[in-house]
Write a structure and sequence with these properties.
Order of helices and strands: HEHEHEHEHHEHHEHHHEEHH
GO molecular function, one term: hydrolase activity, hydrolyzing N-glycosyl compounds
CATH architecture: Alpha-Beta Complex
CATH class: Alpha Beta
Structural class: alpha/beta
Strand content: 5-15%
Keywords: Signal
Pfam families: Sde182_NH-like
Strand order of the largest sheet: 3-2-1-4-5-6
Oligomer: single chain
Radius of gyration: 19 Å
Shape: globular
Helix content: 40-55%
CATH superfamily: Ribonucleoside hydrolase-like
Protein name: Cellulose-binding Sde182 nucleoside hydrolase-like domain-containing protein
Amino acid sequence: MLRATLLLLTLATVLPALADKPKVWIYTDTSDKTIPGGNSEGTLNDPDDISAMAGYLLMASEFDTLGIVVASTHRGEHRGTPDQSEWAERYFGGAYRHDLPALNREIGGYPENIRFQESCIKPTAERFDPKKDYRSLKDYDTVQALLDAVEGQSDAVNVLCWGSLTEPAIAVSHCLATDRRDLLGKMRFIAHWTDSPHHQGSPEKPEDVANCREDAAACRYMKQRAKAGDIVYHECGAIGQHGIVSGSPKGREYFDRFRTSRLGTVFVEGKYVHNCVDHSDAATYWTLLGGWGVNLNDIRPDGSNPPEVELANEAKFEGSSRRIHDELLRRSRAASAD
């Protein structure tokens, strides 16, 4: 145990420092919410990721976005659905391109283009198998794309995990099997709610949460590799839901102010429940910015999420939630400036 801890501390120490703009790769299960499904929203995938993505795009001037993989899900119902990268290009990309001129005029620093790719596991509904040999990535183009993006970087790449851990687990397994620890050493995995001792899960079974049950083998594998010191894995737990979202302003009077811009409208209409916007996965990227309640160094790098740490980080995000939402609103208004 001591050896694993020392290995992890060494990895965290030698991992490249954050650049001026954190480099980001996103894996999200988000998809077109007009595709009917059996969840409480009547959609195939929880549309909270839609709101989180709109918020990310409003904040995109603060990040170096290397890639975004959508529909990273193994729900069988998705196999025959249309190409979700085309949907994302229209839905998110269209709103972003519409608002881009005003955002760059009023704020500046927004990239001209942000790329969306459909996940390689969406058409196959494949789940990670720890016994499988992933040396070849010929069937996993969006895993290969991540590693290609990491290959030439001198700064850390922050891999944000908003749902299934199947693709990150395949990437880690491949790197270990092919002795590419140099690539693992350039990545930080930052996961939303794949563990919680307080919400859905319990102190006895913190992994009993939806994002971990969804692909339990991948979740278990990533936590094991983090505990062993092979990877850096920051587990946010439920601090997005029970910090940023719970602490947010409430009511249509506030959130209707976002509707002056295309991205602001997508943010509000993604998932509006309980009198506010649910964009809980956003915790993964607000931790990268500093000064918004929770910083990445407040979350352990070994995949663990002790009860006292989760509660402390919930409180920090809850206390900063109004400022976070006001910043998003400021940018949404800038996006519609004449």
